[in-house]
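A protein record pairs a chain with a discrete description of its three-dimensional fold. The following entry can be read in just this way.
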Amino acid sequence: MQGRGSSHRLSGSSFASRVSALLLAMFATMATVYVAGRLWQDAESREYLLGEIHKKTGQGQSSLSVDDTLKLTTCREHHKKLSALQIELAAAREEGFTSKYFSENDSTHTKKKFLAVIGILTTFGRKKNRDAIRKAWMSTGVASKKLEEEKRIIVRFVIGKSANHGDNLDREIESENRQSNDFIILDDHVEAPEQHPKKSKLFFIHAVENWDAEFYAKVNDDVYINIDGLGAMLSTHFDKPQVYIGCMKSGEVFSQPTDKWYEPDWWNFGDGKSYFRHASGEIYVISHALAQFISINRSMLRTYAHDDVSAGSWFIGIDVMYIDERKLCCSPLSTGAICATV
């Protein structure tokens, strides 16, 4: 009896094992079919995608991956757009420095692209200088609008506020601005000789945040400019994204308080007491990328005693193209000068 029961139990166990094995085999077969189907679908999709890419690129069979091929196609599209822009730029140069190049091609955008924004740094008690500039080259009223619309040049006087906010000095500037509408009034800046470098920095920040232009120029209020000459000169530098243009110079750092050009931080410039290369302060121009750099890093960019030295210090250590433009030396003795001081 015991032998037969044991035999029966062994037979049942063997049957259960065979059933389990059969079920596992069935599941394995189904899994294999599923995986094979997915691989076949992926292969078909990959083949289709490659075929579409080959049609667009005209390359036929390729050993590149799908991702690499898509990147290649994108690069080619950008290259075509760049070539079109280069053709348009060449045509613009033949016509002159004003062109539809400065307007947005997309009709959904109304913001214009300007050639330059010129900031004339002025201060209280200099109305005669400002009026002379308006008559000589800046223009007012309809002529000013024409300068902006046809030549794509914005010109504004730049001034801060009086130490006693709202006093007669501030009111005189506000009254003058109501008549001329040609000021940038820096509400957070107090007018003072030692704050002149800071005002230059604030001008670039304000200008790049309010006007989209190729270039931004800082000018003193005793400088006369040939606008057409300036525009023609700037048009030769469109293809240079990070340019710093001016009458480049260097020179002695004056360490004595009695010196006219005294530099309180003279010890920062080493034992040689010589300034690094920078553009003369009468007028200098920076490209859009550099104006953005100043705006983004405003809190970290320090100023020295002079605004031209301060501007030059901001560009040390970054990839900037220095252009020594002798036409901006503002001297009657300079051949072909497009500016002059009075």
Remarks:
- The chain has a mean pLDDT of 78.
